Amino acid sequence: MKVGGLFDLTGPTSDVGRDYAAGALAAVDYINKNGGIDGDKLKLIPNDYAYRIPEAVKLYKRYRSVEKVFAIQGWGTGDTNALRTFVNRDKCVFMSGSYDGALGNPKKTPYNFFVGTPYSETIRLALLFAQKKGAKKVAFIYPDHPYGRNPIKAGKEFAEKLGLTVGPDEIVPLKAIDATSQLLHLKKFDPDFAWIGNSTASAAVILKDAAKLGLRTKFLVNCYGMDRNLFKLTGGACVGRAFGMMPLAPMGAEVPDMPKVMAAAKGEPYTHNFIKSWVSMMVMAEGLKRAKKAGELNGPGLKKAMETLKDFDTGGLTAPLTYSPTDHRPNTKLAIFKVNEKGKMVPVESVSLPRKEEYLGY
């Protein structure tokens, strides 16, 4: 039973993409050692598309025409959205590492699924947290990529609802090695909190430069921008300055399924991005088992099976996941973490929003 794999091992998000790819492969190994898909072995066919949309499209076509897959584990926001037309046409279930809110509306993206809190819900939860902490002014920092841009509209609209004043956007590339000019602009506005929609490497640059320039601003960091490497990358500048939005447990957290994950990691110092793809693969495997049992082991059958998952327990690695024929958002809750003086990620609080239809699809 073949599954395609689109990963970024060498491109601009490879700082988080490599661990994600490793988690997917480890999950398949675990699944096969524990009975497979009711006796059938899974085969994940991984390829590095280096965050290049044309390469992702080329690989997708190969998976469909040569490997004959009806399920794919994908990665980025830009490529996942670029493939939507193909995925819908071919009725191929596509589980992405992107949690773009646009992928959560099955009226438009019926074959797209993901396991993390949508980015748009994440940004709303981050702003709600900021308001509770007394924030009056906020700003948004992000790369000029779909991953960075797409949730900003939701963030600004929600900030307005909360009565927050929004400052000018600051664009920091994923491969940035300096953010001094952007942070000097930010310092003039002097927000209480600023959103960081980058991945870990460039988020670290932002936090280091914020410390260097003496900003009082605290930072709300998207789920791919904060992990166990952040303390080292920032030289400790993240301590007391950054709050990470975490839809999944960090490595080593005391939750029921963590021993399985840690054993599969085989001592490698992976970040929680390993867990993201582990859960994605486990959820797909559960869908495949249900589709097989129903005698519908194909794209439409897998989609239908996935939409029967209700409050699905991931062993504490995420909040329970629910998909339905009308809503592919897995949940609307997450935990907020910070990094302590010892470099360990520690929980601050859990936050949630009602599953509102008005927020479906963005």
Automatic annotation (TrEMBL):
The keyword Signal applies. This is ABC transporter substrate-binding protein. CDD domains: PBP1_ABC_ligand_binding-like. Pfam families: Peripla_BP_6 (PF13458). Coiled coil: none annotated. It comes from the Bacteria. Belongs to the leucine-binding protein family. It comes from Dethiosulfatarculus sandiegensis. Residues 2-344 form the Leucine-binding protein domain. The keyword Translocase does not apply. Keywords: Signal. InterPro entries: Leu-bd, Peripla_BP_I.
